[in-house]
Structure formats: C-alpha cells, structure tokens
Amino acid sequence: MAQEEESHTVDKPCTCQPCGISVTTKGSLKVHMQIHTREKPCPCQQCGKSFTRKRSLESHMRTHSGEKPFKCLQCGKSFTLKPTLYAHMRIHSEEKPYTCKLCGISLIRKRNLKFHMRIHTRENFYTCQECGKSYVQKGGLKVHMGTLSGDKPFTCQQCGISVTTKGSLKVHMQIHTREKPYPCQQCGTIVIQKASLESHMRTHTGEKPYTCLQCGQSFTYRRFQWQQHKRTLLRIRAFVDLT
C-alpha cells in the first residue's frame, strides 16, 4: 500500500526561492522565475511585443498571419486560440459555468463574470468626465466618447463610410462581402449579426422580452414593436394633455 501511494506522489524537487512554489523540472522553474524577473525573452519581430514563452509568441503570431486553426465542428467558425473555441462551443451547448453568487446570473466566460461583478461592487467603473455616464469596460467609454466628439476613425475602403469602432466596421464590411456567419439551426435563415440571430430565434420560441410598464403589453422586437409602442403612448399622452 505504501509503495502504491509512493507511485502516485508527484516529486517537485525544484523550489522557487522568492515565493516558495515547487515545480517538477528545472525548465519549469526557469519559466516560473520570469514572473519575478519580468523577463520576456520571446519578442514578436512584426510588432515588438514580447512574451515569456515561445508557445505564447506562436499563438500571438496568428494575429498577424490571420491563421485560425481551431474550427467549430457545429457551425464551421474558426478561431486563433483553442480557449476561444472552447468558450464559443458553450454557445451551442448553452453551458454557462460561471455563476454570480450575488444575483445568480450565469455566464459563458469567466471574463464576462468579472465584468458583471463590477455592477454589484461599482469597482473599476469607467466614467465619462463630460456627462458622468459610467461603463463596465474601457471600450464602452471609448465608444461613448467617440459619439460625443463625432470622431469616426474607422473608414470602409470600398464605400468611404466612417464608423466609431472597429467592430462596427467589421459588421459593415459584411454588406460588401455578403457574409452571413450566423445560421438559424431550425429554419436555415442566415443573418449578419449575432444579435439579429437572437431576435430571429424569438419567431420560433415565441419569447417576448420587452414589456411596457404602463400597460403590460409584451413585444418580440425592441427596435420596431416596443419603441413604436412607446411613441404611440407619448402621442396619446400629449393629445390628452392638450384636451
């Protein structure tokens, strides 16, 4: 029995002197020490960014080459990194392993949970100095500031239209390429944006997530049905006030 337990014991003879952590090999200790020394011996020859490990540099190089070796077998979408593919697969499986302990909401990615927690803690909010509006992510504040300044730094080379964010330009380019990467698994309809697919799916599920707090009527679509309903209520209220 003692021999069996000994065979399962992992020997970690290499110990880090600054923090006391032990690892199995001298090579692993050398890589670990770069955390303390902040040494990054693997630089990218194209952009100058440096990395601790050669493997991290190889993954980074795909951002320059455009290589996406990790493909989703369900929808065919490809990704640069394997963890990104794993996170994407949860969209198909509807798995949401990261749960907020304060409100119970479940999310697909750990990063999303981290951002969500700021809603409760109000920690690290990015606040607009002009109007006081706050955002969970720095990117949200950046987009907001662009709308205030009117700055649209991303320009379509085909038609000349300018937009505020790189993501908006990417969506716009699908008009020219006619790319529609989001297929409906039930009827085969293909749409450009994920948000459009989510809206389309309500035609199958019958879900009506937008509810009028004044009359209780529910709507499937926010942009057309719910907003039009609110405008109708405002016109009725204005008419009543006049009479």
Please tell me about this protein's structure:
With 243 residues, the protein is α+β, with helices and mostly antiparallel strands. Among the domains are: 30-67, Classic Zinc Finger (Double Stranded RNA Binding Domain, 2-Layer Sandwich), CATH 3.30.160.60; 181-223, 2-Layer Sandwich (Double Stranded RNA Binding Domain). The protein has nine helices and 16 strands. The chain has helices spanning 2-8, 26-37, 54-65, 82-93, 110-121, 138-149, 166-177, 194-205, 222-242; strands spanning 14-15, 22-23, 42-43, 50-51, 70-71, 78-79, 98-99, 106-107, 126-127, 134-135, 154-155, 162-163, 182-183, 190-191, 210-211, 218-219. It has a two-stranded antiparallel sheet with strand order 1-2. The longest helix is centred in the last third of the chain and has 21 residues, at 222-242. Residues 1-8 have low confidence and may be disordered.
How would you summarize what this structure contains?
This protein has 243 residues and is an alpha+beta fold.
Ordered list of secondary-structure elements with their pairings:
Blueprint: H1 2-8, E1 14-15, E2 22-23, H2 26-37, E3 42-43, E4 50-51, H3 54-65, E5 70-71, E6 78-79, H4 82-93, E7 98-99, E8 106-107, H5 110-121, E9 126-127, E10 134-135, H6 138-149, E11 154-155, E12 162-163, H7 166-177, E13 182-183, E14 190-191, H8 194-205, E15 210-211, E16 218-219, H9 222-242
Antiparallel strand pairs: 1-2, 3-4, 5-6, 7-8, 9-10, 11-12, 13-14, 15-16
Keywords: Metal-binding, Nucleus, Repeat, Zinc, Zinc-finger
Organism: Carassius auratus (Goldfish)
InterPro entries: Znf_C2H2-type (IPR050758), Znf_C2H2_sf (IPR036236), Znf_C2H2_type (IPR013087)
